[in-house]
Design brief:
Blueprint (H helix, E strand, L loop, with lengths): L14 E2 L2 E2 L5 H13 L4 E6 L1 H9 L1 H8 L3 E4 L2 H9 L10 H15 L2 E6 L2 H14 L4 E6 L8 H13 L4 E5 L4 H9 L6 E4 L3 H4 L9 H5 L3 H8 L1 H24 L1
Parallel strand pairs: 3-4, 3-8, 5-6, 5-7, 7-8
Antiparallel strand pairs: 1-2
Helix pairs in contact: 2-3, 2-12, 11-12
Pfam families: Glyco_tran_WecG
Protein name: WecB/TagA/CpsF family glycosyltransferase
InterPro entries: WecG_TagA_CpsF
Length: 255
C-alpha cells in the first residue's frame, strides 16, 4: 500500500476525528500525481467531506479505508474552516469536479491513458463525449458502468482485468461515498493505476448535474444550492449529518 502523504499532513492540526486530511495547493497535488504515475505507484485518493468523516465514525472498517489512502483531500468547506481554526492557515478546498478536469489536462499533456468506472451508461456516454471534445488527444482506455447491485467475484475479476489490460494510468471512480472508497481500498493491490474517488463529478463536469453559481461556491454555499435542488434526498446528508458532526465536534472539544 502506498503512503506518500506530506509530512505536515500527519500533524494533529491536519486531522479531524483521527482522520488525516491532506490539504495542499492544486499545483502541489498535480506535481505529486505526476511523480506517482511516473513512479508506477498504486494508490487511491479520496475527496473528503463531512459525510465521509461521519461514515468513518460509524464504521471502523471505513475509518481504516481512509487511513490507508494515498491522500484524503479536503472537499468540504466545514473541514477547511476547522483545519484553518486549528492552525493550518493554508488549508483550502479541493473538490472532485474542479480537480478532475485538471487531471485530464495533465493526462493529455503526459500522454497518459485514463479509465472511468461507475455511473450509468448514459452518464458515461456523455462524459466520454465531453472528454473527447475538451481533450481531443486524451485516450480513454476503458469505461465501465457496473450494474447497480453487488457484483459477483467473477464480475469483479473481469472488470479489474479489463482495467489493467487497458494500460490506464489514472482511474476515475464514480460510485458515490462510501462505496467508491471501499471499492478502491479493496482493489488497490490488484489495480495498476492511481485511483481517484470523484463521486458525482462524472455528471457535474458535463453539466448533466448543474453546479452552484461561482459566487455561491466562493461563499461556501454550494451545499445550499444542491440542497435546494434535491431537498428530500439531501436532507440527511446536508442537515442531519452536519448537525451530528458539529455536535460531536463540540462535545469532543469540551471533553
Amino acid at each position: 500500500m502506498l503512503h506518500n502523504t506530506p509530512i505536515d499532513s500527519r500533524k494533529a492540526n491536519n486531522s479531524i476525528f483521527g482522520i488525516r486530511l491532506d490539504s495542499m495547493p492544486m499545483q502541489a497535488l498535480l506535481n505529486r500525481v505526476e511523480e506517482l504515475v511516473k513512479g508506477k505507484e498504486r494508490g487511491y485518493i479520496t475527496f473528503c467531506n463531512v459525510h465521509m468523516l461521519m461514515e468513518a465514525e460509524k464504521s471502523t472498517y471505513f475509518k481504516t479505508v481512509l487511513k490507508n489512502s494515498t491522500f484524503n483531500l479536503t472537499d468540504g468547506m466545514p473541514l477547511v474552516k476547522i483545519l484553518q481554526f486549528k492552525g493550518n492557515k493554508n488549508a483550502s478546498r479541493t473538490a472532485g469536479p474542479d480537480t478532475m478536469p485538471l487531471l485530464l489536462e495533465l493526462s493529455e499533456k503526459n500522454n497518459w491513458s485514463i479509465a472511468l468506472y461507475g455511473g450509468s451508461e448514459k452518464t458515461l456516454s456523455n462524459l466520454k463525449n465531453w472528454v473527447k471534445d475538451k481533450y481531443p488527444s486524451l485516450k480513454i482506455a476503458c469505461a465501465i458502468s457496473p450494474p447497480f447491485r453487488k457484483l459477483s467475484n467473477q464480475e469483479e475479476k473481469d472488470y479489474i482485468q479489463k482495467i489493467n489490460e487497458s494500460g490506464t494510468q489514472l482511474l476515475f471512480v464514480g460510485l458515490g461515498c462510501p462505496k467508491q472508497e471501499i471499492w478502491m481500498s479493496k482493489h488497490v493491490e490488484q489495480i495498476s493505476a492511481l485511483m481517484f474517488g470523484v463521486g458525482g463529478a462524472f455528471s457535474m463536469v458535463t453539466g448533466e448535474i448543474a453546479r452552484a453559481p461561482v459566487f455561491m461556491q466562493k461563499l461556501s454555499l454550494e451545499w445550499l444550492y444542491r440542497f435546494s435542488k434535491e431537498p428530500s434526498r439531501l436532507f440527511y446528508r446536508y442537515v442531519w449529518l452536519n448537525f451530528k458532526f458539529l455536535t460531536l465536534l463540540i462535545w469532543r472539544s469540551i471533553r
